Amino acid sequence: MSEIQTYKFYAGNRWHKPSSEKYFESEDPSIGKVWAKVPDCNEKDINLAVSSAKQAYYEGPYGKMHPAERGRTLTRIGDIIAKNAERIGQIETKDNGKLPKNITPSLTSWQTESFYYYAGMCDKYEGRLIPSEVPNMHNYLKWEPFGVVALILPWNSPIGTLIWKLAPAIAAGNTVVIKPSERASCSTLELMKILEEADLPEGLVNVVTGFGPTTGAPLIEHQDVRMISFTGGTKGGSAASLSASKNVKPIIMELGGKSPQIIFKDADLTLSVNGVVSGIFPVSGHSCISGSRILVHKDIKDKFTQNLLEVVKKAKVGHPNDTATQIGPIANKEQYDFILSKIEAAEKRGLKLLIDGRKEQKSEGYYIGPTIFDNVPNEDDLAQNEVFGPVASIQSWDNEDEVIKIANDTIYGLAAGIWTKDTNKAIRLADKIEAGTVYINNYFNASTQSPVGGFKQSGYGRENGWEGMQSYMQTKSTWLATNPSQPDPF
Ligand code: NAD
C-alpha cells in the first residue's frame, strides 16, 4: 500500500502544521483511495498567511520592488513551472484525475506564457496626464495595486486557474493568499514546494487550505484582504460575494456556465461534430465552458446526432495514466454522485438517453462516460443547470430568432459555439449571444492575451490580457495645483 502524504500550509515562505491539528483527505479518483492529508486551516492560520502577505506588501521586499524587478520574479516563476511541468501534472492527476496530456503540455507552453506576458507588462503600466478643465492644475492618473489579494480556486483545473490569477495579481504589485479547493488542494501545495527554488520574496505567495465556509469565507472577510479573485460555481460565488460585501471589497468572479453549441444546417458536419464532442467530453465536462447544450437545426438533427454518436462511442474511458485513455475519471466522489443523480433524475422525468455513460462505471474509481439526452426542452433542469460532467442535451430549432432565444434563455453567459459556413450569419449571431466568449467554427481556445469572463450569472471581471491586469489594480487621481490659490471660503 502506498504511503499517505501529509501536507502543510504555506505562509511567509515557511511550511506550517494547521494550528487545529486537523486535516482532511484527498482521494485519488482513478482508484477511489485516499492518498493525501491536507491541513484544515482555521482563522489563526489565515491570520498568519494574511499577515505574511501584508508585511511583504507594506514593508517589502515585494511591495517596495521596482516593477521591472517584479517582472524578473514572474519570469523566474514561469521558468520553474515549465521545468517542473511533469511533476505538477502528476500530482494534479492524482488529486483530480485529469489526464496528464491535458495538464503538462500547457504548463510548458501557453499557461506558463502568462508569467512572461505579465512580466513584460509590469513596467509598462504607465499612468496619464488628464487635460482637466480646472485651470492651473496638473491632474495625473496612476495605476496602483490593492495590497493583499485572496485567490480562491475550483477543483477542476487548480493550476490552470491559479496561473490565470497569480501572474496578473503579482505583476500588478499585489501579494497573495491562495485558497485552493478542498477537493483538489495538493497541486497548489506542490507548486509552492517547486516555487521555493525560484527564491521568491518572503510573503509574496501564501497558501491556506480548507473548506469554503470555514477557510474561504474568513479569508475573504479578513480586514487586511483588499480584493478577491474567485473561480468556482455560481452558488459558491454568490456566497463569496456576500462575504466580500460585508466590508465592501471588490471581487471578480469566474463562475459556471451552460454553454450552447449552435449548429446551422450549412455547417461542415465533420467539423461541427468533432468540435462539439471536443467541447465537452475529453475533459469529462469538467470545464466551465463545456458546450453542454447542443442546439442543432431541425433539418440536420438526425444526421448530426447519428454522426455525433458514432464519434462518441469510440471514446476510451479509463485510468488517467494509461496512455490509451481519452477520457479519465470524474474528479471526486461528490461530483460523481452528483452527476449520477442528475442522470437518474433526467431519466425519471422521461428524457430519452441516446448514450448512457454509466456503462463505463468500474469496480474502483469514479468513471462515467459520455452521456447524451435527446429532445431536452429548454426549461428542463438538464438544459438550465450546470452538471459539470460528461452530460450533454440535444435540442432542435427552426430559425435564427428561435435559436438566439433558446441560447440566451439560461442564467448563464460564459461561452457559446456557432457552426456555419456563412460568416455573415455567424457574426450576426455572435453579436446577439449573451456570453463572454463566442467561438465560430472552433471551440475551447484560450490564450493569455485574450480576456475571458462571464455575462449574467457566469460572473464579472475579466482574466487574461490587458483587462486581466486591470482587474488587480485601481486608479488614483492626483491633483497638483501649479499656481496655488485658495480664497477664504467665508
Ligand atoms: P465551488 O464554488 O464549490 O468552490 C470554488 C471555491 O470556492 C473552493 O475553493 C471553495 O472552497 C470556495 N468556496 C465555496 N464556498 C465558499 C464560501 N462561502 N466562501 C468562500 N469560499 C467558498 O466550485 P467548484 O465546485 O470547486 O468548481 C466548479 C465550478 O467552477 C463550476 O461551476 C465551474 O463552471 C466553475 N469554474 C469556472 C471557471 C471560469 O473561468 N468561469 C473556471 C473553472 C471552473
Description:
There is one protein chain. The longest helix is centred in the first third of the chain and has 17 residues, at 67-83. Helix content is 35%, strand content 21%. The strands form five sheets. Strands 15-16-17-14-13-18-19 form a seven-stranded mixed beta sheet, with helices on both faces. A six-stranded mixed beta sheet has the order 10-9-8-11-12-20, sandwiched between helices. Helix 1 packs parallel to helix 8 (212-221) and helix 5 (113-121) runs parallel beside helix 6. The radius of gyration is 24 Å and the shape is globular. The chain is α/β, with parallel strands linked by helices and 490 residues long. Bound molecules: nicotinamide-adenine-dinucleotide. Residues 152-157, 161, 179, 181-182, 211-213, 216-217, 220, 231-233, 236, 239-240, 243, 254-257, 288, 386, 388, 414, 454, 459 line the site of nicotinamide-adenine-dinucleotide.
Global shape: globular
CA-CA gap between termini: 84 Å
Q: Based on DSSP secondary structure assignment, what is the total number of beta strands?
A: 21
| Strand residue content | 15-25%
- Output the number of helix runs: 16
Gyration radius, rounded:
24 Å
* Percentage of residues in helical conformation: 25-40%
Bound molecules: nicotinamide-adenine-dinucleotide
Oligomer state equals single chain
Keywords:
490 residues; six-stranded mixed sheet; binds nicotinamide-adenine-dinucleotide
